[in-house]
Amino acid sequence: MSMNPNAGTPPVYEAKRGDYNGEQAIWLKYGDYEAAVLPNVGGNLIAFRDTKRGFRFLHEPEDMQAFVSDPGTHGIPPLFPPNRYDGGKLKWNGEEYTFPVNEEATGNFLHGYLHTLPWEVEAFGASEAESFAVVAHHVGEGHKMYAYFPYAFTLRIRYTLSSLGLEQDVTLFNESGRKLPALLAFHTALNAPFAEESTSEDCKIKVTIGQRRELDGRMLPTEGFQPLTEWEEEMRESGVNPYIDSMDNHYTAVPQGGRNRAEITDSRIGVKVVYDVGTSYRHWMIWNSGAGGSFICPEPQVNLVNAPNQSLPSEDMGLFAIEPGEVWQATSRIYAVDLASGV
To answer: Rg of the chain's alpha carbons, rounded to an integer?
Structure first.
């Protein structure tokens, strides 16, 4: 897969309803690329592939029953609010809200509900320029989340497939009469390796991390930092094996060259996959399933874990409000570069 796999030939493009291992899906095709969105399972973009080269960029489920019951570690699940909140408490704008604890081991509320619930398909289509699908989820009165956090909002995602790879355009529209906290992340699961004949030993990951947040025994930030290990410094500067150590780590995001991204490079085939998330995401969570050897989740996160309950400056935590009637927007992209040609 390159930045322009269709140079010199008209691309084949398509957007249609279909099936993904028994689940309803919107399938997108553009040239050698294909992608699938699962509207009934969190609006999750579950697959992004290069069909010509046999690349599968995202971790896809083998057991659909297990995936539907726990969809957080495959594809690109949207999380609102993301990660852990102390005892289910969420303090915001002078109020305190309480979600039910759903992670008994830590006594916290984890990841919210939006990645597990059905989303609406608002539109899909295709042209010579791109194939796209738009999915949205509205929270308001009667919603499972509204019972604990009574704010009305719509999270909308437009996925576009083109010669430039996969683009994700996210908008968060505040339909409440009150300020809404922009609590958002994506638990993006990238395959490493992504090529059929490669192994994890062929791969390195580089991420634009800054400082490592210290986490307590319940995986909540202490408001302090830990020194980076030698391999973490290497991950920031040049890249390391994605499974060099078991990772469930929280970092600040520090753009390099104006870009905030994770890169997975396969040295055997000379291809680099870039996950450019933009500068609106102020933190990374990086999780590699106990160094399991097949996928890693560089998770772009707007806010610090447990941010509304912390006493740090809001700017440091990435904690900010969307005013009533206003929209927050961010764009990310996944694409691959052939290192020999640079395209």
So the answer is: 19
Give the span between the Cα atoms of 29 and 336, in whole angstroms: 16
Contacts of 105 (CB under 8 A, 6+ apart): none
Residue 217 has which token pair? Answer: 């025994």
Q: What CA–CA distance (Å, rounded) separates 211 from 233?
A: 10
Report the candidate in 276, 255, 254 with the shortest Cα–Cα distance to residue 264.
276
pTM over 0.90: yes
- 98-143: per-residue pLDDT in tens? 999 999 999 999 999 999 999 999 999 999 999 999 999 999 999 9
Q: How far apart are CA 113 and CA 4, in angstroms?
A: 37
Q: At a CB cut-off of 8 Å and minimum separation 6, what does 159 contact? A: 28, 35, 37, 45, 132, 133, 134, 135, 166, 167, 168, 169
Pairing mode, strands 131-139 and 295-301:
unpaired
